[in-house]
């Protein structure tokens, strides 16, 4: 397809700014391209189901403080309510929003937990403030702090955990519309979630490019240089090369913009292991329809779940994430299937996360002012996904269809 005929993709950069206000009510009140009138009856019925399911839990909390009521009424009762909706077949387009907390059970620290989080242990890198290590302007001036950290972050020494396989099971049951992850560890791919079901909103180590002219660079060579305390240098402009991790101030990948289709279509949003502090990712949770159930599985209440009272269709379960997800899977009757999936996946050879560079003729465009005749990191990543999307979609569809009967039985 000729890219010139497509509407331009808006430019959105990663930032740590304040969260945007919640626009969910507006999505319902204004007719749009997502068939609002056609879905209205279904949304109302879904909200009524949730309201009735939660009624008994609310009645027991009349003498509690508002804050305690908000937490307790959306705890186990909410988890069971959402599990029942899934078992009744009311949730067939599930969107998952995942943060660093998903990978802590794999031994990877999150960013903001006091004492153990990544940002609390950066003194040795001698940076002015924690987020500077992922700031593109700071990297341009001094890349060494990030490269020192990257040695510990590169994929290969960690494995997917139960939470990753729960998301994979959502796909296996034919229920996963998409998972949007902030994580750069690649564990979603390692557990077998197909590429067409995965949006790595903050990039990954799978590809590398010059941070200045965006000329593609062999990812394996970049890794070897970084692991040997060397700085990979662009062969075109002699600037520093980095893995295609999205730094603060950089454009998000084009695949991120699938959210404009996915979130209005979602009939269940599961949010897990995230502080919801990084924009624009944090505001995605506010773009589902107001009657769509949102389930927060997290250590703390975050974002719109800090409000008292909660929105009618909102539920949260606070505590250890892996334990919570395991309990949710047991309610759904999926625990045995997930454990079997984990055993079978571990017997397979793990796919490589470092991609070989594509030739120039495999990319269809150049981006962000790269020199003519050179391949850019963004276009190369898009070309790579496009080249593999046929087989990926086939795998995804086969996986989902193969479990259709088991999905109906649960």
TrEMBL record:
This is Uncharacterized protein. The lineage of its organism: Eukaryota, Metazoa, Chordata, Craniata, Vertebrata.
